[in-house]
Amino acid sequence: MPVTDVSHDMDTLTLTIVAEFAAPVERVWQVYADPRQLERVWGPPSYPATVVDHDLRPGGRMTYYMTSPEGEKYAGYWEIATVDEPTGFTFDDGFAHEDFTPNPALPVSHNEYRFAAHDGGTRATYVGTYPSADALQTVLDMGVVEGASSAINQIDALLAP
């Protein structure tokens, strides 16, 4: 299991997930830079993702939807803020309506993904910051820890030679 630590802090409004992969930083970066690879690991295994648009550049946007076992689709988007290939990027992650317009009824988090060489592999640190304690609690209640952890844990299989 790549996820080694999960914590949330209601004072700093953050959710932090740390994972380690037996692959170089550049290979982990490719998972996020390639939409076909990303959709294999974005979302829990029972809610596979389909990436519709993918522009991993500052000012770029990524849109996707996850499909439930019953066939329901849940849309989301990333708005890319910064890119520091291959060591990380920052973006806002939000829920969307079916046409990928933002759904303001649900929280938007600001995310920082960092990838660093560690013990011959990569340590990934995923930090999501929420605008309020209520927003963080909303996603915790929706199962973001379990969903994100199960999604990240799929990366090892993708990275296997």
Automatic annotation (TrEMBL):
Domain spans labelled Activator of Hsp90 ATPase homologue 1/2-like C-terminal: 22-159
Alphabetized Gene3D superfamilies for the sequence: 3.30.530.20
Database matches in InterPro entries: ASHA1/2-like_C, START-like_dom_sf
Similarity annotation: Belongs to the AHA1 family.
Protein name listed in UniProt: SRPBCC domain-containing protein
Provenance organism: Pseudonocardia petroleophila
Higher taxonomy: Bacteria, Bacillati, Actinomycetota, Actinomycetes, Pseudonocardiales
